[in-house]
């Protein structure tokens, strides 16, 4: 409680950087957004990939975001893993995933997003699904 009062007083006098100091919580949709997800077919080896594009919506760098995800495709391809994004101020980053040569649709499900590699800690858990036709 005292910390919040001191923080409020500091914010009232300095009027800058308060949002960053006040909240360490990472909120999907507010702090970052998945702006695109699409299939890519390699012409050289006929392999398919999906790419997920993430955008930082804040005017400051976010901590490295560790993302636990499930990727399940119609060809039986499944992957359960963690990846990460490092996003500078208002920057976009993308991550591509191999899904085999005969996949035509996949579901990419984020199960947790956290600012630390330790998967016992999660800022956000839930299910965020992207259908990729």
Q: Can you put this structure into words, describing what you see?
A:
- The protein has a four-stranded antiparallel sheet with strand order 4-3-6-7, with no helix packed on it. A three-stranded antiparallel sheet has the order 1-2-5, with no helix packed on it.
- 16% of the residues are buried.
- Mean pLDDT is 70; it is low at 1-22.
- The chain is mainly β and 133 residues long.
- It has a single domain (26-132), classed as Immunoglobulins (Immunoglobulin-like), CATH 2.60.40.
- The chain has helices spanning 2-14, 18-22; strands spanning 32-41, 48-56, 65-73, 78-85, 92-100, 106-114, 124-132.
- The radius of gyration is 18 Å and the shape is globular.
Q: Characterize the largest beta sheet: strand count, sense, and whether it forms a barrel.
A: 4 strands, antiparallel
The total number of structural domains is 1
Low-confidence stretches: 1-22
CATH architecture: Sandwich
Order of SSEs: HHEEEEEEE
General shape = globular
Q: In angstroms, what is the radius of gyration?
A: 18 Å
The first-level CATH class name: Mainly Beta
CATH 4th-level superfamily = Immunoglobulins
Strand numbers in spatial order across the main sheet: 4-3-6-7
Question: Could you give a short description of this structure?
Answer:
This is Lipoprotein. With 133 residues, the chain is mostly beta strands.
């Amino acid at each position: 409680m005292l910390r919040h009062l001191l923080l409020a007083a500091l914010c009232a006098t300095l009027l800058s950087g308060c949002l960053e100091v006040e909240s360490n919580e990472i909120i999907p949709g507010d702090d970052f957004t998945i702006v695109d997800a699409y299939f890519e077919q390699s012409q050289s080896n006929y392999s398919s990939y999906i790419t997920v594009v993430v955008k930082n919506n804040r005017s400051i760098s976010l901590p490295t975001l560790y993302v636990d995800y499930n990727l399940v495709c119609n060809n039986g391809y499944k992957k359960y893993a963690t990846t990460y994004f490092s996003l500078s101020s208002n920057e976009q980053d993308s991550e591509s995933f191999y899904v085999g040569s005969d996949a035509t649709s996949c579901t990419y499900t984020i199960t947790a997003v956290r600012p630390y590699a330790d998967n016992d800690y999660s800022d956000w858990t839930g299910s965020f699904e992207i259908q990729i036709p």
